[in-house]
Amino acid sequence: MITIYGYSPSGNCHKLHMLLGHLGRRLDRDYRWIETDSAHGATHAPEYLAKNPNGKVPMIELDDGRVMVESNAILCWLAEGTSYFTGDAWQRAQTLAWMFFEQYSHEPYIAIARFICGWTPADSPRRADLPKLRERGYQALAVMEKHLATNPWFSSKDYGIADIALFGYTHCAADGGFDLGAHPAVRDWLARVRAQPGFVRMPPIADENMALIAQSR
Amino acid sequence: MITIYGYSPSGNCHKLHMLLGHLGRRLDRDYRWIETDSAHGATHAPEYLAKNPNGKVPMIELDDGRVMVESNAILCWLAEGTSYFTGDAWQRAQTLAWMFFEQYSHEPYIAIARFICGWTPADSPRRADLPKLRERGYQALAVMEKHLATNPWFSSKDYGIADIALFGYTHCAADGGFDLGAHPAVRDWLARVRAQPGFVRMPPIADENMALIAQSR
Q1: pLDDT tens readout for residues B10-20
Q2: Residue A59 domain-assigned?
Q3: All residues at 6 or more sequence positions from B63 whose CB lies less than 8 Å from its CB, including other chains
Q4: Residues from chain A contacting residue B15 (CB–CB below 8 Å)
């Protein structure tokens, strides 16, 4: 059985729930989830760092002790041989290109803005970063909107792991103060993702984080 | 013939030169290089953005007009079927994990510190970011040092594309003010990479950038 060390409100961690849901794999039957609160230091405990020196979630561990880190690499491994990672070498590399885009040009702005809004105190000096983060986040959303004007998905011709990777934080971009009103193609794509068989919704986030997000608006 | 749009001093672009060199492919015989000065706006020209809306280098273009972006995705495509991207699904995903690490936890600190030192004016307000960038960059180097204590390479059992991806900016980390004195395993790994057949050295950077780097020390 696969063990996932993840923090439920994290989009990076939720990606794994999503793919496993599509694959028909069920929590506690096919995989276990160890809640690992990265917002409160759990990923910097010595026993965690011994397995993942980079101190991030998610991480998976197999019964034989092997571990893998980096959400998008884990998606590639879990999706290997399934319809969620298909195509020839060119198409698979294009899927990876969108996953690298997600980690370099999207997540550092859209996920971090959400983290600052919901997981730092209302008077945190990090809030001064929000305007710049939103400017860069909107640039990423514009790139997505342009692609979606002529393509239904990011993963080659069919729905797959690049869509899951990008859904991770796009679906909750509003938590970080992003308004998708000017991004109709992104909104339609989010709806198409939610309609996929086995789609798993992110669990509700805690009241204290919800309250901080509401205050940030 | 493959056309590469790249900026020579960029570690992300140099990765492609490196892999093509290892594969025995020669500039102007097997691929062409169009110098694209991302530090002076060439990637934000309308004709470039029409091909790559994210406005970054490198980008490759095939004779039939297809394009691919994201240095590490391009490495995967070029290395497909070669000894530089081998192993079973688990091993290939581990190679990808290091490439995602490079783009998320390494490049945004080590490459950006170098850019600020060598490509922004000596009085740039961005220089105030350097202490934080160096702190995070050293964290990435510590993760690499720990891995290399028990593994010769980042790409599965043999030298490959994860090593090329990480070499891209680690080999010139000193330009951004990083001292590898406390990272003997990283230094030894850099030397092993340089000894690989077909290794291609990064071209010298321009005098004005060298001068700015020297002033930053």
Answers
A1: 999 999 999 99
A2: yes
A3: B1
A4: none
